[in-house]
Amino acid sequence: MSRHALRRRCLAPMLLVGLVAGGCGSDPAPRPEVDASSKAGQWKATGTLGTGRGGHTESTLPDGRVLVAGGQTTDLYAAMRSAEIFDPATGKWKPTGDMGAARTGHVATVLPNGKVLVTGGLAASGGLSTAEIFDPAAGSWSPAASMNVARFNHSSSLLPNGKVLVAGGFGLVDAPGLAAAEVYDPAADSWAPTPPMAGGRGLHTATVLPDGKVLVAAGNEVGVFRRTAAEATSTTVTNGLASAPPNGRGEVATAELYDPATGKWSATGALKKARSNHTATLLKTWKVLVVGGFSPSGELDVAELYDPAAGEWELTSPLASPRTIHTAALLPDGQVLIAGGQVGSSGSILSSTLATADLYDPVTGKWERAADMGTPRTGHSATVLADGRVLVTGGLNSVGAVGDTELFSVKAKAGL
């Protein structure tokens, strides 16, 4: 099994999907051992990427194959143009057409016609305003209209009318978060500005609710770099908004709703914990589960539930251990699989990369330890396949860019 070869050394000063403080990574910190037989589910190695990568996008195509595009290898400006496709029937990856621009920290959205829209990202020149579309039938990319605002680490949401809402992000490295939002019309191949959010943010989450509104939650208002742990812990929270001291960095706990019917934003309940680099999952109960992330005091084990009917957040059971820059996947039985990520008081991207995984049961509101992945990884991606297995791809760890991929499967629980 081939793997992108890298010397064991200090990696990038930043992974575009994460916050780092510099310093070399180390192997994962020791954790109390849990008997493997008591862990839920199992992981199985599958095909290997042609090129290891983290900070990429992963999209499910109409025929069930999975497209991975862009990302980075070893450092901030090592953005990639290449793309690969995984075939669940064969368990193998094959290269497909390269994107027109190298990008990392970008986002991808599958359009109603089955094509994939990729927007923004970061390259050596800074944030990108360009967009392009992948055609699965042709296996190639074509330019789309450029956004009005260059951005990376933003969000992208497919609206019920088939248009795409892009919101927030950062325009430059170490620049404040953007409040700007715009909507893409695939039929006209055009972007139209929509009213901005109340506050700028990047590294947030965006979830399309059952009524078609988009919930934007938390994120970072100041920038993607976090210089020291002391600066991180000196951040204070007032009215749910984290305000950073000079040269510090701060996460926000605020949340907003975008209504595609009116094209306007409105405030909704604030999270209990300010955070960025978290995950958000729409459960089958229609509540939204937010897990982990980075906070002013470090990585979080805190999980919360948003109730769209009440517009409020409530705490649910915490994770077994803190993590950020992880993935979340909604299984067919309604459970949520949280996998990988990193933890470490310094905030270094590789201070402690995790192979551990946890399962959330929405019926009981409790967590269960899942089997560990074969490879620790952060900045990776996770996709639920048509047969219910979860494909985890790429990422970074203390060795370098990860090329191997794994499949998780778990027996469904009754009543979910």
Explained architecture:
With 416 residues, this protein is an all-beta fold. It has one domain: Neuraminidase, CATH 2.120.10. Helices cover 1% and strands 36% of the residues. The chain contains one helix and 34 strands. The strands form ten sheets. The protein has a four-stranded antiparallel beta sheet with strand order 1-34-33-32, with no helix packed on it. A four-stranded antiparallel beta sheet has the order 2-3-4-5, with no helix packed on it. A hairpin with a 5-residue loop joins strand 32 and strand 33. It starts with 41 loop residues before the first strand and ends in a 7-residue tail after the last strand. The N terminus is likely disordered.
- Tally of alpha and pi helices: 1
For the sheet with most strands, the description reads:
4 strands, antiparallel
Gross CATH architecture: 6 Propeller
Poorly predicted regions: 1-14, 16-34, 226-248
Spatial gap, N to C terminus: 38 Å
Class of secondary structure makeup: mainly beta
Number of beta strands: 34
